[in-house]
Amino acid sequence: MPPQSQNSSWVILCISLVTSATLLSTPLSLAAPDTVTAKPEAETAPSTAPPKPALLARLGKTPNWKRLDAYQHTISRTEFQRLLQHNYLQNDEAAEGLIEILPDRARIIKQSNQPELGYYDLFFLSGTTKKNSPPLKVPRYWTPPWKLRSPLHSSKPLEGLHIAIDPGHIGGEYAQIEQRWYRIGKDTIPITEGDMTLKVAKIMESKLTALGARVTLIRDDNEPATKLRADELKAEARKWLNRKLGSRKPSKSKIESTAKRLFYVSSEIRSRSEQVNNKLKPDLVVCLHFNAEAWGNPRKPSFVDKNHNHILINGCYSKGEIEEDDERFELLLRLLQRTYYYELTMAEEVSKTMRRGTGLPPYTYTGDNAKSVNSNPYIWTRNLLANRLYLCPVIFLEPYVMNNKDVHARVQAGDYKGIRKIGKTYRLSIYREYAESVTAGLVNYFKKHKQ
């Protein structure tokens, strides 16, 4: 939904990163190495001090650092440092005291609130390991596009590709709980983001399937993926608030509102990620959302003049985020799989077709919770739960401002085939315009990058 007024504050790095200004100003190449050598090294010995509870994100799990053993010697120091600074860190200080780059390894603190528990040493690929060890593949469950064969018939350009579509939010009876709902006028259709994203997803499913892709909807109705509900998460909400507030006691209303958010954001998206990573294992995930602008009093919503579009890829971790042990671990999993290269080039193609298809101008972030990594004003890097937890390339789409008057009128018109006059302009339905412009971008991307 909205970029949420960019009120994030986050995490920092403790090294002097030696990347030149030229590297930082040049878009990174798609040609990421895939065959590399690996030779696991031992972790540093843990302290015997009694452990404190790990510092985790909401409903996060303590990371198993041995999962990174498969990535030993699979990335050079130069590439690791460049990806970290260029994309994954909010600023040069964001990993200070948490990730240290040494000549031959990255030394990563295992538990940020108890450094004496030790570090994980991730050794870099070097000329010596390249020469003396057999090549190993970077561990991934997804297939890079250049490994997919182009189809014999041009009518099936997405053949061999598995695309998962994630219709953002839940919708239905949960829309008001999620605060993704508003209505202006008694006889109007309510604007519910979860219902709208599901309509777009089903249109995209049909189009992508016709183009040869295997398509899975992560959500195909308005039932949550999580089995938990807000009432069952009050204890966890209290625990979370106690950590944040320290000696101050959280109010009953604050516990209830936090428990609701744990339900429809944390538990819901984590449940979807388990489905994606453990069952579906797609080649990419397309996260569908609609945007919105603040309207002041939530009981009296009003229209805004703004209407825009942007695309998010994972990155821009703050100090506070990297301090959380699971987020630091998840950052490294994405960096080591080189998802950035594929997300950026895919977002480039989709941004072009969405610009043509929707006519929307780019949205510009003014806070520090997102950053630009190239010259494309539509593409931003930001650390969101979905684009962090899905362990494959993810593009996160945020077109249309739902409380814009024109967008509201198009939603009232519903879905329809062909074009219809809305206001003074003939347009496709907003759902088909969205679906067709994204589909066209994906086709253009895979036509360029498949074998």
Keywords:
alpha/beta; Aminopeptidase; six-stranded mixed beta sheet; 13 helices; 35% helix; disordered N terminus; 451 residues; three-stranded antiparallel beta sheet; 15 strands
Query: Given the C-alpha coordinates, what overall shape results?
Result: globular
CATH class of the largest domain: Alpha Beta
The CATH superfamily of the largest domain is identified as Zn-dependent exopeptidases
Instruction: Please state the average pLDDT score.
Output: 89
* Strand arrangement, major sheet: 9-6-10-13-11-12
Topology:
Blueprint: H1 21-25, E1 35-37, H2 77-88, E2 99-101, E3 105-109, E4 119-123, H3 127-132, E5 135-137, E6 162-167, H4 175-178, E7 181-182, E8 191-192, H5 193-210, E9 214-217, H6 234-245, H7 252-280, E10 284-288, E11 309-313, H8 319-323, H9 325-337, H10 339-358, E12 379-381, H11 385-389, E13 394-399, H12 405-413, E14 420-422, E15 425-427, H13 430-449
Parallel strand pairs: 6-9, 6-10, 10-13, 11-12
Antiparallel strand pairs: 1-5, 2-3, 3-4, 7-8, 11-13, 14-15
